[in-house]
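Practice problem: predict the structure.
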Amino acid sequence: MRVTKTLNNSLVLCLDKNDKEVVLMGKGIGFQMKKGDLVPADKIQKVFKLDSLSDSLKKDYIKLFEDVPDELIICVKKIIDQANTKYDEPLNKNLFFTLVDHLNYAIERSEKGIIFQNRLLIEIQKYYPKEYSIGCYAIELLNKKLDVELSEEEAGNIAFHIVNAQSDQANMEETMLSVRALKDILTLLSYLFPEKKVNKESMLYLRFVTHLQFFIARMIRKEELPEKDEFLLASVKQRFPKEFNAALKIKEYVEEEIQAAVNQDELLYLTLHISRVY
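Answer:
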């Protein structure tokens, strides 16, 4: 493959045999390389295809790579390599782009003394310990190699990126659907429980929102919880009839908007979470 643009010492932009733009990664791969130069095969460590990105997003990422330090690129590769050892299937390759973007901004914020609190950190630690451990590894590596002071909050943020990268189908359309569905479901609940003043800073509410996020992700990916507790659902339905009705409304919404089946265990957990918050 021949270079169309050198991004930095570790990345070059090329055209593949199908004239599709790709980013090639390798130690020193961009050093003294000019447009039209042939990239030695033994220098290529990774190939990132750009055809899954929109034209505007592609331009943004190319510009980003020209600005970020080589050491960050190397660290992100190590983080992803470490993460891939934890799973049977490789993580979505777009993780490289999103993680470089996120961490570059996180480092800029850290250097300015700006820290965003991750209000779901406890939930991430509890429900995604593997991904959180990768986040901790990433923070330790970045703080050491880049001489920065990223906080534990960022370990949780990185964990979220790892979770999202576990589906090959992850894309912007799916992300937008997830955000819209979450907003619609919370709006629906506010109409169903108009008298309830919900404390949106409470752990119960944050836990419920986290549950909804993962519930929506399962629905989009057509993954179902195994049904195993009909008796408990009947008991919960009798005890929380209004909350169960709300769960049924969510079921109707999901089946209409996402075209996914909501089974009894999903209804059970939705009802229980709604009963604690509303």
